[in-house]
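Please produce the structure of this protein holding 1,3-dihydroxyacetonephosphate.
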Amino acid sequence: MNAADHTPQVTVLGTGSWGTALAALLARNGHRTLIWGRDADQVAAISERHENPRYLPGVPLPESLAATGDLAAAVAAADLLLVVTPSHAFPGTLHALAPHRRPHCGVAWATKGFEPGSGRFLHEVATEVLGPEVPLAVVTGPSFAKEVAQGLPTAVTVHSDDEAFAERVADLLHGSTFRAYHGTDIRGAELGGAMKNVLAVATGVADGMELGLNARAGLITRGLNEIMRLNAAIGGRAETVMGLAGLGDLVLTCTGDLSRNRRLGLALGRGQSIAEAVAAIGQVVESVQTADEVVRLARRHELDLPITELVHAVLHETITPVAGLRLLLSRDQKPEYE
Ligand SMILES: NC(=O)C1=CN([C@@H]2O[C@H](COP(=O)(O)OP(=O)(O)OC[C@H]3O[C@@H](n4cnc5c(N)ncnc54)[C@H](OP(=O)(O)O)[C@@H]3O)[C@@H](O)[C@H]2O)C=CC1
Ligand SMILES: O=C(CO)COP(=O)(O)O
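Below is the modeled complex.
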């Protein structure tokens, strides 16, 4: 965004619930905003009816929000790109945008997760695909798309190795009901956003089994401990875990029924199958893939993360939720902090 002679053009990639909510926010903040989606019907609905009936039904979108199905043109027009496709589509989205990106255009993403199959952080994927000179940032924190789209108060955080870029992205998002903080711990911020999705399945399972509020609080707190330990191992900052990207998003996702990851856990705790539950949710449920990658990362660092391991085993159907929680409760007594 080096163009002093025009207001910056922001292109959001992904017409799912979060991409649409963020694009609407940017447009309402007065920025020239274009959203790209792969589904022609969704693009037409956003352009013509100012609604995304598939992902945010009933929520009016600003008329100033433009939509397109032409990825090359959408990227070529952008001074800032905001990628909001799911983690499984993230590497493909970056490869698709790379040839069309203008040299000054930084890339941010609001995707939560890791590269499937390798466990690489998304900023590592982005650096490899785009090169080390491109400013990169992650937008993360406790933020249900529906509430943001409805204009309800929300706080997020934007992290980048390039502090000025993090601040610029946060500036574009910040508004009267949307507080955007910024920081420079991209690893810790990405880790928190990914891990909370896995831990939300565990609290969902416990709540689905009606194990009570004590169990829920215990799981959230011990889950936080798992984020703290893995975060220390990967070189993230401790304060990131205690902030919006860690504790904030963990609490939201473990307790809020708008969470798809929590809802997956609730369904499993009530005896439904994973396939049934995911189909009923009808949107991306990142934990299904992220659990594999967190376990891979933890094992690489020789860390024992029992709640994460339990969710991983439940999602692979190698243990039932009931047997898994019994196993968790029967673990040896130990100090609270190691
Ligand atoms: N929803 C929320 O409240 C929040 C979500 N996030 C994160 O944002 C990311 C996106 O999630 P969200 O918007 O909620 O997901 P949704 O399930 O609401 O939407 C997913 C969107 O991604 C599109 N998509 C899927 N695969 C591809 C692909 N290969 N290329 C292009 N587009 C693709 C889908 O298109 P199609 O309809 O054609 O399948 C759909 O538009 C996730 O990582 C999530 O964790 C973060 C914070 C809040
Ligand atoms: O990341 C989110 C809120 O911050 C959305 O959580 P779910 O993907 O579980 O719905």
